[in-house]
Amino acid sequence: MTSGVLRATGLPGPARPVTTGRPQRWLLVLALVVGAVVTADVLNRGPLERLDLRAAEVVGGWGLRDSAAFPFVWSVTQVGGRVTILAVLAVLVGYLVWRRRTWLPLVRVLTALALLTLVVYGIKYGTGRTAPAYPGVFLFHEDGASFPSGHVANAVLMWGVARWQAVEYGLPLAVQRTLWVLSVLGPLVTGLAMVSLNFHWVTDAVVGGAVGILLLGVVHALDAAVLSRWVRARGRQTA
User: Fold this and answer.
1) Structural contact between residues 114 and 126, judged by C-beta atoms closer than 8 angstroms
2) Which pLDDT belongs to residue 235?
3) Which residue of 5, 55, 119, 169 has the fewest CB atoms within a 10 Å radius of its CB?
4) Sign of dihedral through CA atoms 174, 176, 177, 179?
5) 97-126 mean pLDDT
6) Residues of the chain by 3-state class (helix, strand, coil), percent to 5
7) What pLDDT shows up at residue 5?
8) 12 Cβ contact partners less than 8 Å away, ≥ 6 residues apart
9) Phi/psi class of residue 16: alpha, beta or left (left: φ > 0; alpha: ψ in -120 to 50)?
10) Which intervals hold domain Phosphatidic acid phosphatase type 2/haloperoxidase (predicted)?
11) How many other C-beta atoms lie within 10 A of the C-beta of residue 237?
């Protein structure tokens, strides 16, 4: 079953659709506006900087980085870690390539990964914002790579791509639901964990989420316009 929407059966009440998670236009516009406004505020050291400083002061008082809870909270940050997500994607994509005889899932993942690396690190090194562990909020600093949060952007984009593949290729409903949860809650818990450990400012996490949504929309658009057509054309040539 390769439809973009699958309906859960055997559940009480109306059937619940499991969608591929392609960002709707309103969400893309919202992500663009939020990302642009917050970035402009950060670059101009606007009022959101005071919110960042206050939040960092509060969570710093919790002392999580020096407590017994640190290993647990740090492990939560890895929900958005590249190694964690790529390990899951390697299994998922490997299975689909083997069972469905198509390279399209791999092409989608590699495209998303390339875009994520170029865009996120381009912004990081372009702004040079340091993490809350530094005494103050520095911009254009040689050691600054805090803005935006790569973990949050990674969680939005890559869990979104994983969910997309699970739904499109009709994997078991339990797999689809698990990846749906990770694509929705993964970025949220990752951002909260990063901020609670003072690894990132609040605005880092917000813009990381916005960037992830926009990149997911870009990958979906590229797939519709280029990737799917190219892979299918290659498949016909090989056949």
Assistant:
1) no
2) 47
3) 5
4) positive
5) 95
6) 70, 5, 25
7) 46
8) none
9) beta
10) 104-220
11) 7
Residues 42-84 pLDDT 10s? 999 999 999 999 999 999 999 999 999 999 999 999 999 999 9
What is the C-alpha separation between 50 and 72, in angstroms, rounded? 29
Q: Would the pLDDT of 239 be above 90?
A: no
The HSE-up count of residue 229 (CA atoms within 13 Å, CB side) is 7
- Predicted TM-score (pTM) of the model is 0.89
Residue 138 confidence (pLDDT)? 87
Burial 158-175 (b: 16+ CB within 10 A, else e): bbbbbbbbbbbbebebeb
Per domain, the residue ranges of the chain are 25-238
Residue found under tokens 């951002």:
191
Q: Which residues contact 157 (CB under 8 A, 6 or more apart)?
A: 112, 115, 116, 212, 215, 216, 219
With tokens 């809870």, the residue in question is 69
Cα gap 41→97, rounded to integer Å: 44
